Give the backbone structure.
Amino acid sequence: MRYPSIMPINILILSPRSRMRDMLESHLIQQNLELSFVATLPELFLRFEEIRPNIIIICTSVKNVLQSLETYSPLIKQQHTPIVLADEHITEEDGIQLLAASFTDFISLSDATGDTFSRSIRLLTQINQKNTELNATHNTDLLTSLKNRSCFYTHLQCELDHILLNNEALALVSLDIDNFKAFNQCMGYAAGDQVLLDLKNRLLNCARHFPVFRTGADEFFIIITATTIDAAKKETSHLLEVMAGFLFSSFNIANQENVLGISIGVTFSSENALDVDTLTNQANQARSRAKRTHGCSFSIYEPDKDQISPYEGLLESDIWAALKEEQFELYYQPRIDLHSGEIVGAEALMRWNHPYHGLIMPDDFIPISEQTGQIVPMGFWAIFQSGKDLKSIQDAGYNLTKLGVNLSFRQFQDDHLAQTIHRIIDKESIDTQILEFELTESALFSDDLHVQNSIEKLSQIGIDFSLDDFGTGYSSFALLQKLPISALKIDRSFVARLPESTDDAEIVRAIINLAHNLNMGVVAEGVETKPQLEFLIQNGCDQVQGFFFSPPVPLKAFIKMLKTD
């Protein structure tokens, strides 16, 4: 019988016995069939990976197969390729057991004819084609046409089975876009989709020989396989070098250049990491560590550094309790005027005195509070408390020019933001000439019109605004000129490598010049060394804050610092 398909049908056959092989060949001498024979199960696994056949025929004793089904589980699990058992004689009872064990069909060779085989091959080929079409739809991400999360897990499990069988190795690369949710809110979801498609194309150019998967909104994985762990590390190192060139350049959206941070985490298979969940968790933990560095960065999983935070299980109820029971406290980091060398201001930073965990830093509770919306009442509390603390500072006989309090982008989603802040200020008689709200760039662009209205209302009562972490987000110079921003704060990621990094040095100089040209002040964050300080003085920075002078300290310690200044 001639098969209508133009493409040949690839059939992979396990046949340890030559007589059985000859019998099969006599039935399968058909046009447009490509037969590949192997004699052992390990050979079958290897050839399966190489040729990805349309059909697998296992020509061996049905009794042996039924007694050792676990041996065949990697083939049965893959579910895409029909598997047929052929033996000289298969009873109906044996056949039922085979079908129950997820074999697709069985053929008793003693009863088979050429027509029997032809019909079986034709039906199995149709099943294979339908499965392929359905799997392609089910396993493909609609936006990028990359394989999706479901396919990723299946593929990774198959690769793990393969490296276990052959004593090989793999690397898993996890990456996502920093603050992508904020980017979508600022620029729109159509722009976000453009970025994802651009990123997909860049990843495919980087990882030409390895599969790329989109497993979440902006989450991607790459699986790298190699014969040894050293070879896997070498391939990964090369891939990261290529990615540095492809991924870290700006994204052009509507003729506007947008620089987006991309965080990459890498892990390798090992004796302690040979299952899907462990590997993906390790890669994601490494990626989370990479996020601590602003901009594009990568991190390789290290067990000592990538342990899950002990505060990972903090719940919304814990934060409500903290607000009610006054467990939050404001610490103050001094701002130093570089012309006089004196403390002229401070930034208020929240700490959590947890009854069981002790002192918890903002990185461990601010993200969950932003997700749940609890950052809104927390932010109002910070304004209220900073007003009380400012009175304590003034009552002690000290004056500050500015006291900075952070406003989250989530707070700007509150339609009554300006009115609520106005009530707090009136109730506590807070000096608005000293109060300064520090905005992130994501807050500034979360809803242009609403943000502008809120800022203008607060500006009318004398409050100043500074732009925090400048240079790491999506700044629009046009909007900067429209809004009453009094200062730009240079992000610590640019200060950290001063003065050695020529790139960072140029960026810092440019920010200082930009701010001064717009009649704004400049504050550098994260100053930790004397060379950093000297560079900032030489280049006209106005104020600094950082561990070189002091970490954030409780109110009493800050007042004591003012006394000795």
Summary: The two ends are 97 Å apart (CA to CA). The chain has 22 helices and 22 strands. Residues 328 and 352 are 5 Å apart (CA to CA). The longest strand covers residues 343-354.
